[in-house]
Amino acid sequence: MKKETIKKLTDIVGKEAVLTSDEDRICYSYDATRKIALPDVIVKPKNANEISSIVKIANQEKIPVVPRGAGSGFVGGSIPIMGGIALILTDMNRLIELDEENMVAVVEPGMVTYNLQQEVEKRGLFYPPDPASLKFCTIGGNAATCAGGPRAVKYGVTKDYILGLDVVLPDGEILNTGVRTTKSVVGYDLTKLIVGSEGTLGVITRLTLKLIPLPESIKTALAVFLKIDDASTTVSKIIANRILPSSLEFMDQSAVRCVENYIHAGLPVDAEALLLIEVDGDEISTKRQIEKIGDICSKTGAREVRIAKDEAERESLWKARRAISPALGHLSPTKINEDITVPRNKVPNIIRRLRDIAEKYRLNIVNFGHAGDGNIHVNIMTDSKNEEEMKRADEAVGEIFKATLELGGTISGEHGIGITKSKYIVDELGAKGMEVTRKIKKVFDPNNIMNPGKILS
To answer: Is the pTM of this model over 0.70?
Structure first.
């Protein structure tokens, strides 16, 4: 990058907020995929006006701009594959406003999701989206990928809680979308268009979020199954009985053993599958629902149903669930993580298809995830240095996506597309869908500076 451009950027944000050393560039060159591409420069703005000035320079000089939060994504969305400016938003981390009367929060994109939840819960309010990385991922990154989490089965995903956005467009102008009211049908829904666009249409600088009342009671149960088919069938049975858990999580035997070796949580390693089930609401209804769920699990083949007696037991169960991803890092050098989603009643079907694919390609595939909304995290455990095995893994990914689409599902429930899934997107959107998507990108970003190479390769 030209020295003159570096000076312009420094004039906007200050010398301490512009980093160019190799060490700093490496720090912002990767995400959870472990793929690496170096930015030319790192810039850390403090407000929307600074971002606007930065983007105007980038647009004039045709420099790629890659917005980045915590870098916790699984699809390479924040990797600067074409160099340019890594725009780091973690210093913009304020809770700007908490309107208790209207149950609305206004936040900056760098605010950590968990920190927001803690703040609003002090006031008896609730922000439900809870990705597994919630203690370090940021609200802006959640919006960019439309993150979900275990509670999505009942409460929905990030887009369901975003009322409005402030966005710096690729020409540097600032767009305000949405409203603070529950209802609005004025024009196209630009808020929903920006959410999930992975930084390819603009830079989110402020979010207006919907909050709801904090549930007064939570009940949690762990169901142990000796047969994986019984566990996956139970998911459909629970929903068919008109019970909508706040979380309904699935772990297969490989995931269970991996976690047990990692944190020694006392999980039954002989079980083919576990279900972690949670309900919330008032005290009477949660007690009734968790008892009914326990009865359903027993009838569908559960060897054991443990109901947490207190918050400490509940937290212990969730600690095991949230330990899966880090535990997998000890299983093999490389993890290919896909987050397919199928209709809930197709969970048994996709689990069987995944087992067949693992056998066909001679791969160790670990499955876990949000079975209550059909979102299964499929983890192919391999070694990137083994070219022959990686070839089989790549072929397996294509077959996994094919099976998912055949069952009426989607190739990404909450991770996004980024660079790792871009070659498969046409299989879901079709030729016309791709054409319209490209036209939308062109309207917003004619010079293709905003996170280029993502979604649309």
So the answer is: yes
